[in-house]
Amino acid sequence: MDLKTATALRRLRLVSAPEAVSFLLLLVCSVLKRTTDFNAVPVMGMVHGVLFILYVIFWADAWNRTKWPLKTAALYFVLSVLPTGGFFAERKLKRAAEDEVIASRARKEGVVNA
């Protein structure tokens, strides 16, 4: 994996958890708006919107660089629109990055997959 691909995956991973948190906070603010006089929906809506747009941009960049199959790319996109999906995306991306580091080290040491 080259540096630009690793950077694209890292950016996607770093924005996925905050995007999930902002989505959950937006849902809480929506409930509070309907049940109390507290209305933070405009602020949280904007914060979540910016984070979602960043997620989609970073997702598209990662898909372009990694050449994911359509199924994998669709999975990461669907995870972005689920309330806690960003947490799962972050975990899967972290695991994939760790696996790539292990594979890279094995290639450097000349270990061949059996």
How would you sum up this structure, described in words?
The chain contains four helices and no strands. The chain is elongated, with a radius of gyration of 17 Å. It starts with a helix and ends in a 5-residue tail after the last helix. It is mainly α and 114 residues long. The longest helix is centred in the N-terminal third of the chain and has 33 residues, at 3-35. It has helices spanning 3-35, 41-66, 70-81, 85-109. The protein has one domain (3-109).
How is this fold's topology laid out?
Layout: H1 3-35, H2 41-66, H3 70-81, H4 85-109
Describe the structure concisely.
This protein has 114 residues and is an all-alpha fold. The chain has four helices and no strands.
Q: How helix-rich are the residues, as a percent range? A: over 70%
Largest sheet composition:
none
What proportion of the residues form beta strands (DSSP E)? under 5%
Structural class: mainly alpha
Protein name: DUF3817 domain-containing protein
Organism: Streptomyces cylindrosporus
Subcellular location: Cell membrane
InterPro entries: DUF3817_TM (IPR023845)
Give short descriptive properties of this protein.
DUF3817 domain-containing protein; elongated; 114 residues
